[in-house]
Amino acid sequence: MMVDLNALLIALLLVAIIVLVVFLIIMISNLTTTLKKVNVILDDTQTVTAIVNEKAKETKPVVDDLSSAIVGFANGLKGNETNIASLSNLAKSLSSMVNIIRNNK
Question: How many helices (H) and strands (E) does the chain have?
Fold first, then answer.
């Protein structure tokens, strides 16, 4: 029995194509699974980002007040403002910050 060289090459080519198709099917299946996991992670990230954004908006006024109170306290130490007024502003700002922290817990 003599095997024709062309028939042998065609058979090898068909086997290679079948192996490649199976490999591509497995790769696409794995890629689909990975993309589903990435979508879940992105959804979680979006939720966390929304929460952080909300909390940042809540605390921004308090941080601004605290910053101005500290500047007022520093000006009071320099003699530009009374010490009592600057300490009062600082105490109010710290009190606001503590209230926000307590409400978030």
Answer: 2, 0
pLDDT tens digit sequence for 69-95: 777 766 666 665 566 666 676 777 777
What's the gap between Cα 35 and its chain centre? 18
CA pair distance 87, 77, nearest whole angstrom: 10
Q: Which amino acid is at 63?
A: V
Which residue is it, tokens 């086997």?
A: 15
pLDDT more than 70, % of the chain: 79
Q: Are 58 and 100 in contact (CB under 8 A)?
A: yes
* Alpha carbon separation from 1 to 4, 7, 8, 13, 15 (Å, rounded): 10, 13, 13, 21, 22
What distance in Å separates the CA atoms of residue 55 and residue 52, rounded to the nearest whole number?
Answer: 5
Query: What CA–CA distance (Å, rounded) separates 12 from 69?
Result: 81
